[in-house]
Amino acid sequence: MKKPLFVIISILFVISEISIAQDWSYYNTDNSEIPGNYIRSFSIKNDTLIIGTQNAGLAIFDQSNWEIFNVENSSIPSNNVNNVIHNDNGIWMNCFIGIGDHYLVRLKNDDWKIWENILNNQKSRFSDIEFDENGIAWMVTGDNSGWVTRFNQVTFESFNSNNSCLPTFSSTRYLPFSIKVIDSESRWIGLLDNQLGSSSLKNTGVVLMENENCIFYNKDNSSFPDNHQAIVEIHKDPLDQNVFWFLSNKGIIKFDGINWEEIFLPSAPNAMTFDNDNRLWVHISNIGMRYYKNGEWFMPIANPSSRVNELKVDGDNRLWASTETNGLAYFNLNELEINSTELVKDEKVSVFPTLISDNITINIENLGLQGVEFKLLDIEGQIHLQEKIIQRSTNLSIPNLLNTIYIYTLSKNNRIVKSGKLLKL
To answer: pTM of this prediction?
Structure first.
């Protein structure tokens, strides 16, 4: 792959709101036999749900019967189940006991197969797994001796800077965190900047591994955006196979093979996925669900939970969310009615100036004032100003803040109707 030129395009975070937020349905311990409400990971095989939980084992639901596997009634090595995935060779999962005590587990026709020494005949952690078209498993393993591990159903082969094109990193700084298999020859690897507590800007990046060649992108050698600590998910665009979307702890980064585009969010995202209509759905911490299409954000459905670990869409266009408190949630996107006349028009809700010093003005023309609230946040998500808006035109005093970029949100009844960036001078 020829190394391209890079352009960062900062996109103003503009949200249009559907007038009625619609609700979710749930499988939880109150209405089903699911063993726990903290869902770490799940997979959907036809209509069968395969659910990995925190401290409650594995659950399989075929729409009629529940089957629960835990350390007391099966050979599963731990009740903590993550990275659930299925293929023609069975159900695969990451069962873990501690930080570095992870097991690769397969369940096939009631037979359990457990691999506990996945890295150079030693126990190790791994944080993501995907299969290529040949059934080869690829895992990211956070250890000096093996960044990426390949498993051909018989043996494990680990790749690091000593035996492959992967770059050399300090084990105290960078860790592999996520992986996206493109095909049998290519894969993306998302990194974690492990300098927790450091006051400096975080500097994560991604690696494109193509056979014997690797390209490492971060802010030091390209225009990859800075202040992102971890790349937690990687998705291929459903319409353009050359475009990839990276979910970080700060927002979304889009790469089209030439340009990097950073899409700002007002708070940390948890998970994302594409639906069958090519809309990009994202769950944002403490804000909720929304989708992104044609450069705009929309929020037509309610928040399933304050924290979501995974989002997936099934063949019937149902959006599924694994929550940490409410079980497994789903929403039928075929019932989603989006009428453009219901959208709140941004030009009738204004916040200015964008270059602020002491004051900011909020004008509202087409929105009822009940339940309207303004928030000013920094890029870390910390709230510096929070005010109820009770007048059509409101002037707010800006607190003594550092001169940097801030994000504002204007919400009605906890649903954002406008958001954008402000620069403090």
So the answer is: 0.76
